[in-house]
Battenin (Anopheles funestus), 445 residues
Amino acid sequence: MTDIGEASSPSVVPLTEDDPEQAPPKDKGLWRDLVAYWILGLCNNYGYVVMLTAAHDILKELEGEGDDHAKSSMLYDYGTANTTARADDVTYGYEKRPCNKLSTGAILLADILPALAVKSIASFLPLAKHIRIFLCVAAAAAGFLLTAFATVEWVLFVGVIATSFSSGLGEATFLAYATYFNKNVISTWSSGTGGAGIAGSLSYTGLTGLGLTPKATILIMLVVPGLEAAAFWLLLRHKDTNKPAVLEDAKEKPEEIDYNTLPEDERPLDNWNQRIRYIPSLFIYMIPLILVYLLEYYINQGLFELVYFPGIWLSQSEQYRWYQVIYQIGVFISRSSVNLIQFRHVWIMAVFQFLNVVYFTFEAVYYFTPSIWIIFVLILWEGLLGGGGYVNTFYRIQTDVPAARREYAMMVTSISDSVGIALAGVAAIPSHNAICDLPVPDRLL
């Protein structure tokens, strides 16, 4: 296992309820926790990913095919030119850029703001895990149903909001609860969330590609909240969160630990005042992760739908869906790699992500990239950076933060990705509108 960057501090993780002197490899039931956390990560993020992958289709439903927005008389599928109107194989005759009236950043905001709100509150509430997860499962199912059966736009957005609420509450709860388990559940959780990206985007893209309607596709996905419930209540071995966490190599049982003997910066946070004053010490984890997510989701929801190659085997909607699939493949690979390689300096990933923003912005404006395959490779790279930033941040917290404060640190830091995504949604909308008002690039003429 390789650690990129400075040497890490000694690993400290809360004990399970097993014998404290028992080495983790002897825990024959450990596989249940690891598999359960992988499934929970998959299910928790699945609906969120589906909503973003379906964003282009949702906006088409909201705006209706009868509008003349951003379409010339030659456009049908938001940018697929009518072949009968072409002068030849390289002339497309677009009069305007093929754009939605509303950026998919609007769907992004509806898909992230509720998650941000619930994460902000969750860190100050008791870890009532069973109640929280019941709410997550119910909200996820409601989100799919509302989105599938919506006939007016406000119902569609309520469905997206319900899905966001489920994802946000689930992430804050599962990450905090993970501090009571073997440290490797962070790796399997992160891998599962990455798997959700592939499963969500690929399943939606694949099923709609086979001819299913978006409504039928989303209804099929109701199986996912049921799987989440089964993994949490049937597979996962539950821990007593009323007992304080202790160091992995401690000989005393949790109730025998005298926390007054620990250094002040390793003692539990007993009140709201202490918790609030502790938050600035977490900025070293939060700020780089916020930047990574701000930049990558600005690309995903502000620029992806503006990067279009006419006349190939994929329509504009299909290109957008496959951009999301390839991005999620990169996320899955990097989120699954933390046991092989770690990067302590997440800010480096933010720098590379900024370079991606520059490239994709120029591409959205000038359409200079000669092949969609180059875009596919760059999107895979973008996903690798995003997933790496996430998993390495929480792995560092699991190994660096004192055990008595780790649960709270996990919940607070889980806000970071949502803050970055929300800022990206805000930035994506005016950027989308500005680029759509520019002259048509040569590739579409």
